[in-house]
Amino acid sequence: MTNEESGKPQFCICNCFTTDNIFLEDYKLHVRFITEEQFRQDYEALLNGLGCVTQQQFDDVLNKISQEVERRKRLSVTSMERMSVIKNGYQPLHPHVYHLQENFLTPKFKHLVECCRSGSVTLNSLSELLAEEAASRVYRFPVFHKNFCEDLIEELEHFERSAAPKGRPNTMNNYGMLLNELGFDEGFVTPLREQYLHHLTSLLYPDCGGCSLDSHKAFVVKYDMNEDLDLSYHYDNAEITLNVSLGRDFTEGNLYFGDMRQVPLRDSECTEVEHKRSEGVLHRGQHMHGALPISSGQRWNLIVWMRSSQVRNKLCPMCNRRPALVEGEGFADGFTRHAAPLLANSCALT
Known about the structure:
The protein is α+β, with helices and mostly antiparallel strands.
C-alpha cells in the first residue's frame, strides 16, 4: 500500500535540491548552479575577489560542484543502501539510547513541556521559566542528563569505529552522522519532536510553523582540534532547529546569531550564545547563525531540523520559490503532496 492509499502524506523534496545552496568550502560561499554560463555570470567576479583567480582554480570549483550535484542526485538511493547495511550488520554498544526514555530528560525540560502542554502558561508567563537569549527568539535550556549524553557519545564513537558505511550530515559538516540511517528516527527523534518539542514550539513559534511540525532531519556533528573546528554563517533547511551540545570537554566554540536570512550580513549585528554541555539551543531555522571555533577538546552536537509541510509547501526555504516537488524517501525534505493535519495542540499567539 502506498502512502497516498493509506492516508499518510508522501514526503517530497524540492527540485532545487540539486541546484541551490551548494557550499564551496574553500571560499565559504553558497552558490546556485544551473549551467556553467549562468554560474560564470553570477559568481565569477565574486569568486575572483575571494581568491579564485586562475583557470585551474575555477575548474576545481566546477569539478567540486559537479561531484556535489551527482552526490545529491544519488543521495536517496545511497542513504537507503547504507541504512540496509547498518540494520543488518551493525551491533550497537548501547541499544537503550535508540529509544527515548523520560529518565534521559532533565526535570526542567519536562517541567517546561508540561506547562506548555497543560495550557497553564502564556507566551509572556513562559518567560519566567525560560529566558530569551540576547539574540532574538533564541532560547537555551537543559535537555538531557549528562550521563545520557555520555552514553550517546560512546555509541556514536562505537559506530564511527565500525566498518559500517557512514553518510555525512550536510555539505558544511565533514564529521558526523545521519541519525535516521542508524535507526534513531522511530524510537527516539520522532517521540522527542511529537511528545515534547511540539508543545514548546507551538507556544514560542506559532508564526513559523511551530504548531504544525510534521517531519524532521536529525544528525550529529563533531568538532575536534584535528577535524572541523567551527561552522560558517548559514541558515538551516528547517522551520525550527534544536541544537543540543552533548559534550565532551571543550573550550570556546560559542554559537553566534545575526539576523534573519533576508537581512545582509553587512546590516546585521551578531550576538554570541553560550553552548554548555547537555543544553539545547532552540531557534528559527531561517535565523542566520554559525559556530565559533573551539580552542581545545572535542564537542559533539545533536541537531534536529524540524519542518512543517504546511509552511514549506507554500514557499521553499532554500530557493525562496514555490516548490516543484519530487517524491523522496522517509521524511525527505519535509514537503508533502497533500497538506498534513495539525497536531492536537492549539496554536495561538498569546
